[in-house]
C-alpha cells in the first residue's frame, strides 16, 4: 500500500508539470493491532496485524461516494490515496475494520468500531486514523 502513495505523488507531480494545477491528492493512513490483553490500548505486549482488511468510504464536495479497500502491511499499516480535481476533493470519510486473518486475534475489540472524520487537509497531506484493535479469544495468563 505504501508504494501506491509514491505512485500517486509521482502522478501529482506529472499533473502539476503538465499544467493541471487544480489536482488534489488525499491520503488516509492507519494501523491495525492485536490487543493481546484486551486493555483497549496498544502496549508492548500487543503486535501488528498483517493482512487485516479495512474499508474506507469518502464523500466528495460534489456528493460522489468513493469506497476503498485496504490491507495492512507487515507493520499493521494500511493506506488509501486518491488524486482528483480540487473541486471534487474529499470532505468526509469513514474508516472501519472488516476482518483480521490472524489465526489467534480475530475478534474486534468493539463490534461497532468505525471512525468518521472530516477531511479538510490540503493536497499532499494525509490523515491518520486511530488504531483498530482486535483481541484474541482468550487473553494469556500474564495479562491477569
Automatic annotation (TrEMBL):
Any single Pfam family the record assigns to this protein: Pollen_Ole_e_1
Leader peptide range in chain numbering: 1-23
UniProt keyword list: Signal
Name listed for the protein in its UniProt record: Pollen Ole e 1 allergen and extensin family protein
Amino acid at each position: 500500500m505504501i508504494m501506491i502513495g509514491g505512485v500517486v505523488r509521482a502522478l501529482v507531480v506529472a499533473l502539476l508539470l503538465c499544467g493541471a494545477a487544480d489536482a488534489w491528492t488525499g491520503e488516509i493512513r492507519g494501523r491495525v493491532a492485536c490487543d493481546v490483553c484486551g486493555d483497549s490500548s496498544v502496549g508492548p505486549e500487543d503486535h501488528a496485524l498483517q493482512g487485516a482488511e479495512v474499508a474506507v468510504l469518502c464523500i466528495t464536495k460534489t456528493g460522489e461516494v468513493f469506497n476503498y479497500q485496504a490491507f495492512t502491511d507487515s507493520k499493521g499499516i494500511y493506506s488509501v490515496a486518491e488524486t482528483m480535481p480540487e473541486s471534487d476533493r474529499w470532505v468526509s470519510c469513514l474508516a472501519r475494520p472488516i476482518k483480521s486473518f490472524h489465526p489467534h486475534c480475530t475478534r474486534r475489540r468493539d463490534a461497532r468500531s468505525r471512525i468518521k472524520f472530516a477531511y479538510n487537509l490540503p493536497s499532499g497531506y494525509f490523515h491518520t486514523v486511530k488504531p483498530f484493535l482486535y483481541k484474541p479469544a482468550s487473553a494469556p495468563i500474564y495479562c491477569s
